[in-house]
Amino acid sequence: MQTTTNCDESPAGSTRTLRFVDWLSAELETEEASTKGDRRRLALKLAAARLLEDRGYDDFSTRDVSDAANVTRTALYLYYPSKQVLVLELLQDFQRFMMEKLRPSRKGMSMAEAALETNRTYVRFFAINARIILSIQYVRRNLSDAEKLQFDLNDWWAHKVARAISGRTTVQQRSSHPSKQALATAYALEGMIDSFLTELYVRRNPNLVALNLSEEAVAKLLTRLWLGALKGSEP
Amino acid sequence: MQTTTNCDESPAGSTRTLRFVDWLSAELETEEASTKGDRRRLALKLAAARLLEDRGYDDFSTRDVSDAANVTRTALYLYYPSKQVLVLELLQDFQRFMMEKLRPSRKGMSMAEAALETNRTYVRFFAINARIILSIQYVRRNLSDAEKLQFDLNDWWAHKVARAISGRTTVQQRSSHPSKQALATAYALEGMIDSFLTELYVRRNPNLVALNLSEEAVAKLLTRLWLGALKGSEP
Questions:
Q1: Domain B102-235 classified CATH 1.25.40?
Q2: Is B138 a residue whose pLDDT tops 80?
Q3: Which of chain B's residues have a Cβ under 8 Å away from the Cβ of A144?
Q4: Are A110 and A118 in contact (CB under 8 A)?
Q5: What ipTM was predicted for this assembly?
Q6: What is the pLDDT of residues B172-192, one digit of tens each?
Q7: Which CATH number fits domain A5-233: 3.30.70.330, 1.10.357.10, 3.30.465.10, 1.25.40.20?
Q8: Which residue of B has its CA nearest to A209?
């Protein structure tokens, strides 16, 4: 996989913390993990995240987690009654992490510039976190419907995008209730980007990998398609 | 789920055979199933397809298949050493079925008309076969990489679309080797359509289902986005 030099143009340090396990690890050092309990929980989640990334959900046990986190199993069960509960909390953290990383300020940029900048970050995000995204997708598929709804990042993102689309078309619709059409458009375009990045970086579809696209080329392609589709979606 | 009256405008009978199990069932009655062996194989596959649709891969046994097909288990094992082998052959049939249904003649139509017509068929196809597509996607995820490549319908379709895109941009590229850019575009747009239809009809994402879109509205939306994106993708 080629990487572009464009990563160097992003603000210092942002690329490093685009990696989920690094972000969790940095959390451990902040003041928010003030009590011994907080630090232990974080240490357990960090260990589980690394195991998820290295082995996948089915191939580690709570013993592996407690060993890696240097916590007794009794202590682990004090915080998390099961591996599933631990991983569900990790999913919430991943969701928070993703929202934090993909909600940067794009003030003063044109729609096209903002879209390209967002896609650059998103492509990087997928490429860096590919293995853990694979595990998270696997876990998500086995959730109940109610749990799935809780972890529907696409929904959060679709509403954000739909409001932006509505705002472009009519002033009246620039409200918290985007139109049905705008929401469906947002879901479709998100699906385009997510499925392309999942095939390329997460599932590593050989037909796509063979195209040998740089991350910058991927970001530019998806942005062009996105902007063209949005133009086409206007009545 | 709303259905549109547009289905009635398609050629007589085509909607009925858009359903995989009906198509298999019709195959049983053609002359191609000429020997007793052919008919038995087809009967077993038809039974397996129905079980896949009703219960999903993990919830039926070869005994269920042989019972439903009215064939002894000994006979079943004569043709298929395992449930997996049987289902793999079914995947090949599904692939053939899909290629047959999605390769209709669009002669004399503009690009926009042809795209809408193809999307109408595809939307119908997903809505009708949703449950068996869910099972097939599940089986596909557990295939080896080599097997996955063999069942990569997206690749076949992407090349077809990419050639059409190349043909639109430069005459020179209208060859059997579409450009890298055209191929990546085709994959991205396919991903948009497949992921939208999968979320809506197969996984039944409540956020999408709540939009209460008719099949005709879905076909029109996806066509508009597709054509807009294609325009945007031109250099």
A1: no
A2: yes
A3: none
A4: no
A5: 0.82
A6: 444 567 888 999 999 999 999
A7: 1.10.357.10
A8: B184
Percent of all residues in chain B with a pLDDT value above 70, rounded to a whole number: 86
The pLDDT value recorded for residue A168 is 63
**Quick one: what percent of chain A has pLDDT higher than 70?**
86
Interface test with chain A among B58, B187, B194, by most A beta carbons within 10 Å: B187
The shortest CB-CB distance from B207 to any of A152, A213, A221 is to A152
CA atoms within 13 A on the CB side of B98: 21
Cross-chain CB nearest to B232 (options A149, A212, A224): A224
User: The tokens 């008309």 sit on which residue?
Assistant: B113
Contacts of B115 in chain A (CB under 8 A): none
The amino acid sitting at B131 is R
Domain regions of chain B by residue span: 11-88, 102-235
Judged by CB atoms closer than 8 Å, whether chains meet at A194 and B195 is answered as yes
Total length of chain B: 235
- Environment class of residue B171 by beta-carbon count within 10 Å: exposed (0-12), middle (13-18) or buried (19+)? exposed
In whole angstroms, how far apart are CA A110 and each of A106, A107, A116, A117, A186?
9, 9, 10, 10, 19
